[in-house]
Amino acid sequence: MKIAVVDSQRLFASQRDAWLAGRLTEALREHGHLAELVQIPFSDARTHTVVDQMLAVRLVHIKNVERVIGLGFPAYFLAHDHKIVWVLREFRQAYDLWGTPSQALPNTPLGRSVRTAVLAAEHAYLSEARRIYARSASAGQRLSDYIGLSSNVLLPPLRDPDLFRCDAYGDYVLAIGPIRADRRQLLALEAIGLAQSATRLVIAGLPERADDLLAMRTRIVQLGIEDRVVLIAEQLPDLERARLLAGCSAVLCLGDPDGRLTQEACRSRKATIAFTNGPVVAELVSDHLTGRVVSSVADLARTIDELIDDPALPERYGGAALDRLHEAGISWERVVGELTG
Questions:
Q1: Which residue in 113, 119, 120, 134 is a FRET match for 320, CA 20 to 30 A apart?
Q2: Position 280 confidence tier, pLDDT thresholds 50, 70, 90
Q3: Which of 128, 154, 180 is the last residue of a domain?
Q4: pTM here?
Q5: Which residues contact 165 (CB under 8 A, 6 or more apart)?
Q6: Total number of domains constituting the chain
Q7: Full residue range of the structural domain in which residue 264 is found
Q8: Could you tell me if 9 and 45 lie in one domain?
């Protein structure tokens, strides 16, 4: 089958998941398809050009392929009679980031009109697709809540699964992701303050704003847990990410938009701890089997203590997590089968 993989490209910008489009194209070729990657430049630096760029995509026509697989906003607006959309990057400024410090779009008449236009176009042009896949359950829920479209969850495989290993079950719980002074991260700090064991909390990731890092540090001092919390305010290189995962007692999932962290935890034979109202990969996380799902600060503190007090517990959860990952069958073979079936 002749397939065009269509994705948006942010010039000179770091995109953690930009490799996915290229790897998907390779996987399609490995499975006998003729596949080409088509990248359409996109920038949201100027609010007034967002709608123009959406229109520009609609003026692009690809006629000599049997299927188009659209991945990112606004590239997946491209018209084709047999279009499949795997939503890897939507324009979240118009979705759940609106009304938050990360919304980027100005709350002005222009910004509000752009948001309205984006949501309308998302509904109209994604509706053209034969099938819609979301990269996680939370992404699929956004499509349902904001534009009324249903989707199936298709988790992206890890870039380098063999990088992850288990070295030990150490004296720290690891949280990887953007540093945000939001409710879940502040609750995690409080839980460490309540825990009776000497467990440490390591939080690693880029701060979303300078104020977030300051607020986290201030709260750590207020709780008197400076010797029990480590903040690594930077984007971890893959090798360092794998090293921290290899040595932790468990992984605290405070945010996992595409299931990457949970998959890495499973590959590292580590339990995942998540809040009941937080993002969780249901296929991989089962309470008291592959990890814990907690409902309060006190519950999290008790769970942290249990993992330290019973050395066999994190190993048992971790082994079950790796088994569950294998059972889930997250692979490029599955991705290709879904997108070409």
A1: 134
A2: low
A3: 154
A4: 0.86
A5: 242, 246, 267, 268
A6: 2
A7: 161-328
A8: yes
